Amino acid sequence: MSTMAVPDIAVAPVRKGFWTRSRKVGLTLLGLGLLAAVLFGALATEQQARFTLSDDAAGAALEINGTIGAILFGIITIAAGAALLAGVPKRWFLPVLGVGLVGFVLSFLCWQVSAAPAGQNFMPLVNIIRGTFILALPLIFGALAGVLCERSGVVNVAIEGQLLMGAFSGALFGSISGNVWVGLVAAAVGGAFISLLLAIFAIRYLVDQVVIGIVLNLLAVGVTGFLYERLMQTDAAKYNSAPRFSNWEIPLLRDIPVLGPALFRGNIFLYVGLLLVLVIHIGLFRTRWGLRTRSVGEHPIAADTLGVKVLRVRYRNVLLAGVVAGIGGASYTLALYSFTKNMIGGKGFIALAALIFGRWNPTGALLAALFFGFADQLATYLGAISSSIPSQFLAMLPYLATILAVAGLVGRVRAPAADGKPYIKG
Question: How many whole angstroms separate alpha carbon 55 and alpha carbon 109?
Fold first, then answer.
């Protein structure tokens, strides 16, 4: 029996271009660092930039000369950008990027705080952290609602409507009953109602999921706006004066410096939001329910073959997402404000961006929501210290941060494979 030699076939190695994502981000950081060191350093003053460890100007503080701080943190950003430009191992990309972004922000703050009017050249860290979490709360709940839907294969563009309906239902029924818990349950039901419509049209009738999401947002705006004008505006005392959840202090934890007063003297929504992040993360990656949810979102045909009820899983998770988002909407009207028309103001879409920025992961969504919450709180703080930056630009800051984060920092991310694809049982 003869054998025939098979010639070796040369396979050309796959070459990556020089301008990888890491190097592009590094070049951007390098430019930001130069801007910070030169421009912020020139605009900063010799006054001390004080970062107090309390919610006012009193108490201990971290202090640094404004000009020196702006230049120093700008150099740190330059170093981070140079490291990415030179090429770092993939596992070091996010830590180095984080150092560069923090350096840029601190350089900016050294300029702003040192240049503030006399008596205002301080940043109260407790107040900033507390405000960041409060402003991030609807984003956290909204992003978690998105995780539950999209991990199941249903695109949830209706987060805005779920938050808005939750806020309205909580205010209305909380006011009528005079009971804050009734308002909370009503908010959950209101969010679930929008989710039920999403599930019926997207799963049962196979309507395009992005289109139906936008339609449901408009429906929520229209219904709540109409009822607001007919009921709440005519008799606010009866229909728009819901009781509020008081702050709950956690013994021992409340006494931790900086973080204690900021996090452990908050309302129920803060604790529920953080708890839900933990519960959903464990549920998705450590339980049978999570395995089935992820399999339905990735490969529903294979899941169906193994006996998983694909449509049932999707219905259940979409409704659960509505409950979560409805509670997030109640964090407005049962803790902070009275209801007003379209009071969510685009936060549902920022929550959707946080979901993508967090890579469809509950923990990542939390961090992304906090990033956007910090941008919002920073805009408020800069307005309070009479910043030289125009107020119109400050109002744009949270949305600019959203665009930059999703377009510039996320890079290539992969949604669940079956996300947005209707499943028709054969």
Answer: 17
Dist. CA 64–CA 181, nearest whole Å: 47
Q: Are 67 and 44 in contact (CB under 8 A)?
A: yes
Instruction: Please say if the pLDDT value at position 116 is more than 70.
Output: yes
Instruction: Describe the crossing of helices 125-150 and 347-357 by its angle, rounded to 10 degrees.
Output: 80
Query: What average pLDDT does the chain have?
Result: 89
Q: What's the whole-number mean pLDDT along residues 139-149?
A: 96
Residue 407: per-residue pLDDT: 67
Mapped onto helix, strand or coil, the DSSP state of residue 130 is helix
236, 362 in Cβ contact below 8 A?
no
- Rounded distance, CA 357 to CA 365, Å? 7
Confidence at residue 257, expressed as pLDDT on a 0 to 100 scale: 87
pLDDT score for 391: 77
**What is the CB neighbour count within 10 angstroms for residue 404?**
12
CA dist., res. 245 & res. 251, Å (int)? 18
Closest CA to 130 of 304, 309, 267: 267
Distance (Å, rounded) from C-alpha 145 to C-alpha 276? Answer: 10
pLDDT band with cut points at 50, 70 and 90 for residue 252: confident
Contacts of 147 (CB under 8 A, 6+ apart): 280, 284, 355, 360, 361, 362, 365
Q: Give the per-residue pLDDT at 1.
A: 43
Classified as helix, coil or strand, 425 is coil
Tokens at 297, concatenated: 């979102």
Other beta carbons within 10 angstroms of residue 347's beta carbon come to 28
CA 399 and chain centroid, separation? 12
**pLDDT the model gives residue 15:** 52
Residue 226 CB partners (closer than 8 Å, separation 6+): none
